[in-house]
Every structure is written in structure tokens, then in C-alpha cells.
Design brief:
CATH topology: Methylamine Dehydrogenase, Chain H
CATH architecture: 7 Propeller
Number of domains: 1
CATH superfamily: YVTN repeat-like/Quinoprotein amine dehydrogenase
Structural class: mainly beta
Largest sheet: 5 strands, mixed
Helix content: under 10%
Strand order of the largest sheet: 1-26-25-24-23
Number of helices: 1
Number of strands: 29
Radius of gyration: 20 Å
Shape: globular
């Protein structure tokens, strides 16, 4: 066999292997309606137990996903249209956060009671996150400021580190480290106690998404084109870049799973994808179900997580909680 034929055969084998390894599923194992006529936004808790939904007909609602039971319905104001476009659940399932562009509320998941209501002045909220125990809040604003608040002591730290509006922020589980990314083509990793910048990440386009791995070992940072990177924060070096054929991919949700070995992403065209953190290769994908009456037939993936260790759960703009089959987790 000639050398050229050998390399052609090897290339074909690699392509076939890649296609086999990246399987796609369009049929959920289970489906539950959480919002009639769709949702404005939604988030599933890290372990899948709860979902918070913001929708037209139900306002704000907290669901017990294990029993498919509506637990609480919330609102920021009486007799007003629902303008909540961000919802979060703390990693320990103790608190939920709901936010509009000018205010946010903290809720006790066990009792359903509000434990805090906060107005934001000067500039609208672009993104907001809650620490694992619900004590710390981090939000980014249109004016480029990132604000860290200790809800227990009232300590407030403002970081004017971006020169243009913020698109995405994230907070480490313990609330001590922050990630922020904006239209200035930059992302920053910084300490919320000392206000010290630990690492700066430069991109060729606007940074659209930042996300910590649960243990703080990795960070996912993506711009609005094709730079979707996973950084090893213990070394400060690039671990991998997600490999895909599209000219660009704007992620609507991102979450590390399986002890940081894999990454789940969702986008605005119905697709959830599972990625290998070490290599950046896709391993499996799913297509969420759009509502029958929508035109065009699409949906935004708002949130996805590992469910019972061997399945994936998702919430989308269609208003459905869906459970998906997951191939054996890769080591």
C-alpha cells in the first residue's frame, strides 16, 4: 500500500469513528409541560431536583422535577407584566434568584418565602449569578461594571474592569472568584475579596459566555464567532477548544458535568451537545422539542444537566422539561 493511500484510509477511519462517537437523539424518554405557550427563561438545579421558570401565563414558578409538582408561584410586583428574564438556583438547592433588568429577588426554596429584594441603579443588569450556598451574588451591567455582593454582611465590591457592556458573568461555588466577559473582546478571572485580576483572556470578537467548573478547575469562555475555549485554571493554560463545523455558535446554556470531565452546551436552535473537556470533541447531541404552534419550529435551550447519573435533563423556551438518554459516560 502506498503512503498516500494509507493516510487517506486513516483519515476516512477517523471521520467514521468521530461520526459514530457523536450520536444524536431527537426522542426524549420523558416530557413534562412547565409553561403553557412557552417560557421566557428557565434553569434546572445542578442535581436536577428543581426548575425555576419565568413565563407569560404562570409568572415565576418553582417545580419539583422528581414528582412533577408545582411548588410555588412568585412575583416581584403585584398586577404587573412579568419582566423576569434571568433565573438561577444555588448549587446546594437552598435558594433561587430571579432578576429583571433593574432588580433581583432571592427566594428560600424550602419555604417559598422571599428573603431579599434588591434594586439596581445606574445601569441595567446583563447577567447575574448566585453562589453555591446563596450568600453571594455577582452581576454584570451595561456600563461595563461587575458587582459582587455579600448578602450576609452587605459588603459590596464594584469592578469597572470592562470598557463595554457585560455579556456573561459567573461566580465560583464559594463566591471568592469571579469570571466576566464583555463586548470589549475580553474576559477576566478575578478575586472577589482582594479585587485582584488573576488572569485576562483576549479574544478577537465579543465574549458571549463564561462558566466555571464546579470545583473551579476549569473555565469555559466563548466569543460570538468560533472561539469556544476550555481553560485549565490550575495552570492558566488552554486545555481545549470545542471543535465544530458551524461558522459560529452562540451558546444559551453551559454546564460542566461528570466531575468536570464533560461539558453540556445548549444553543438557540434546539440543540444540546455533550463535549469532552480534554479534547474539545463532541460526544453526543440531542434536539429539544419545539411547540407545535410555533413558527419557525425551533426552541432555545435554557438549561441542561446530568440526571440520575445516566440521563440528561433540559428546559427550553418551548416550556418543556425533557429527559434524554445518555450514552455511557466517557472517562
Amino acid at each position: 500500500m502506498s503512503l498516500s493511500i494509507y493516510f487517506k484510509s486513516l483519515f476516512i477511519l477517523l471521520i467514521v469513528s468521530f461520526l459514530i462517537s457523536c450520536t444524536k437523539s431527537d426522542q426524549p424518554l420523558q416530557q413534562y409541560e412547565h409553561a403553557v405557550e412557552g417560557a421566557f427563561t428557565a434553569e434546572i438545579s445542578q442535581n436536577g431536583d428543581y426548575s425555576v421558570i419565568s413565563s407569560i401565563h404562570h409568572g415565576l414558578s418553582l417545580w419539583d422535577n422528581r414528582n412533577n409538582k408545582l411548588l410555588f408561584q412568585w412575583q416581584h410586583h403585584n398586577a404587573q407584566d412579568n419582566d423576569i428574564y434571568i433565573v438561577r438556583i444555588s448549587a446546594n438547592n437552598s435558594h433561587a434568584l430571579t432578576a429583571s433588568r433593574s432588580e433581583f429577588a432571592i427566594w428560600d426554596i424550602k419555604t417559598g418565602q422571599s428573603v431579599g429584594f434588591y434594586k439596581v441603579s445606574e445601569s441595567p443588569i446583563r447577567d447575574i449569578q448566585l453562589s453555591a450556598n446563596g450568600r453571594y451574588v455577582l452581576y454584570g451591567q451595561v456600563n461595563g461594571k461587575v458587582v459582587h455582593i455579600d448578602l450576609q454582611t452587605g459588603r459590596r465590591l464594584e469592578m469597572p474592569i470592562h470598557t463595554e457592556k457585560i455579556n456573561s458573568v459567573d461566580l465560583s461555588a464559594n463566591g471568592l472568584y469571579a469570571l466576566s466577559g464583555g463586548n470589549d473582546h475580553k474576559a477576566f478571572l478575578w478575586n472577589t475579596k482582594t479585587a485582584q485580576i488573576i488572569q485576562e483572556f483576549a479574544f478577537n470578537h465579543r465574549v458571549s459566555m463564561v462558566k466555571f467548573e464546579d470545583q473551579g478547575r476549569y473555565a469555559f469562555i466563548a466569543d460570538t464567532q468560533k472561539a469556544s475555549q476550555i481553560w485549565d485554571l490550575t495552570t492558566g493554560k488552554l486545555q481545549s477548544t470545542l471543535i465544530y463545523t458551524a461558522r459560529q455558535s452562540i451558546f444559551s446554556s453551559v454546564r460542566f458535568i461528570n466531575e468536570g470531565k464533560q461539558l453540556l452546551t445548549g444553543n438557540g436552535t434546539k440543540t444540546i451537545t455533550l463535549w469532552d473537556v480534554k479534547t474539545g470533541l463532541s460526544q453526543q447531541s440531542w434536539t429539544v422539542t419545539p411547540r407545535k404552534e410555533t413558527r419557525p419550529k425551533t426552541a432555545v435551550v435554557y438549561s441542561a444537566t446530568l440526571w440520575d447519573g445516566d440521563k440528561i435533563a433540559s428546559e427550553s423556551s418551548a416550556g418543556f422539561l425533557e429527559i434524554w438518554p445518555l450514552d455511557a459516560l466517557k472517562n
